[in-house]
Amino acid sequence: MNHKTKKRFQEFTFILPALIMFSIFVAYPFLQGFPISFTKWDGMSPGKTFVGMSNYLRIFKDGNVINATKNTLVFTAVTMVGSNLLGLLFALMISRVSKLNNVLRTCIFVPYCLSLVLSSYIWRYVYSDVFYDIFGVPSPLGSTTWVMLGLAVISVWRDAGYCMVVYIAAIQGVSTDYYEAADLEGATGWQKFKDITFPMIAPAVTTNFTLLLAWGMKVFDYPMAATAGGPGRASETVAMLIYNNLFTYFRAGYGQAIAVVFTIAIFAVSTIVSRTLRAREVEI
User: Which chain regions cross the lipid bilayer (predicted)?
Assistant: First the structure.
């Protein structure tokens, strides 16, 4: 075994435990449920009726699927952009090492340590009892127009701290020599950010955007805990729609078909976004 092969084998052993766990708890259940998507089944009775591609054809005509997809995309876009912008802003402000900055980092990161369900309950209270009492603004969670934006704010509040930590690590890895040279050339703060900081932290941008995209597209906890999909299905996401079909409406075959299409869509979109951003890294 040559050195290169030995090194690759050692690298593979590091990911082997995660690969085994993924295979057992994600890949195998997904493949096991794939045949169910071609059946009409309530999820409990022993008999399944084979219906071919009818479940898949129904997806593209179902208004509930269209509504859930729209809600999911709105949530994903807002939380992905909002979390990254706030995280980057915080990182630029407190990236230097100091006692005060350490305290600020901790305070900003703490919300990410809370569970998604607890975060939803906290903000449901804030919207209904704090904002309304102080500003007289009704809770967005009760509005069919603003409910997804209200849920996205919860996600931004929680995930901005995570993005901040990634960006701080990337910023601290940029050599100060670049900034010293820029100072000698009389570069402004914006020019240093545009021409030095942002290009050098491009891999961190790719990582954060890809992760937030995947998290946003499969969101379930926020709408389930804060609104239960209401009002009037205005906050029902694709993940909630799958859950409802499987466990509430007892349409396991149809729910599984949506899950298959949804999983493929997440994989495809995440791959495209990741490759596009990585190609952009090279251009920068």
Answer: 12-31, 73-94, 106-126, 196-217, 253-273
3-17, 93-107, 119-133, range with the lowest pLDDT: 3-17
Query: Looking at this protein, which amino acid is placed at residue 135?
Result: F
50 pairs with which residues across the strands? 39
Percent of the chain whose predicted confidence (pLDDT) is above 90: 73
State pTM to two decimals: 0.91
Q: Domain coordinates of the chain in residue numbers? A: 51-283
Give the alpha-carbon dihedral of 265, 271, 276, 281, to 10 degrees.
150
Q: Is 52 left (phi over 0), alpha (psi -120 to 50) or beta?
A: left
DSSP H/E element including 40 = strand 39-40
Q: Which residues pair with 39 in a beta bridge?
A: 50
Among 276, 206, 239, residue whose Cα is nearest residue 75: 239
What fold does the segment set 51-283 form as a domain? Answer: MetI-like fold (1.10.3720)
CA distance readout (Å), 193 to 10, 33, 134, 202: 38, 48, 38, 12
